[in-house]
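Hi everyone, sorry if this is the wrong subforum. Our group has a chain we'd like a structural model of before ordering constructs, and none of us has done structure prediction before. Sequence below.
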Amino acid sequence: MSTNDLGREWQESLGLLILRLGLAWFLFVWAVDKILEPAQYVKIWAYFHGIQIAANAPYVMGAAQIAVCLAMAIGFWRPLTYGLAFAMHGVTMVVILPSLIAPFVIENGYPTNRNQSIAVAAFAGFAALWLLRRRDRWSLDAWLAGRRVRPASAA
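Answer:
Right subforum, don't worry. Here is the predicted structure as tokens:
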């Protein structure tokens, strides 16, 4: 492998690490908020989804999402955890779709839907991470795969 290839591999690995950690943090903040402010999430589900959830449901959802975020942050079970994170954010995208379609709405002199466009960038990041998951060399999965004992080839 040439020095140029090693440099590209290193840059790609670093880029995916930064993307993975940034997206894991993005979801982690929302997951922890479910545990810190569960009543808020009960109201959100009732308002956005039209579903009344149990008062303890945000704790369960938050704990499950935290587990996914932590596994994602270290690159463990990449196909599953990256896919789950992508799907979790996908649910948000469906829920806020009306505000994404109309990002320039002004109410009381304030652009009410503008900040929702951040979700589109995050969704693109989740898609990219999932699509490039096999190239995420600085992950726990990649490290574990490198430690497996490979049988000697028959000559």
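For your construct planning: The chain is about 70% helix and 5% strand. The chain has one domain: 3-142.
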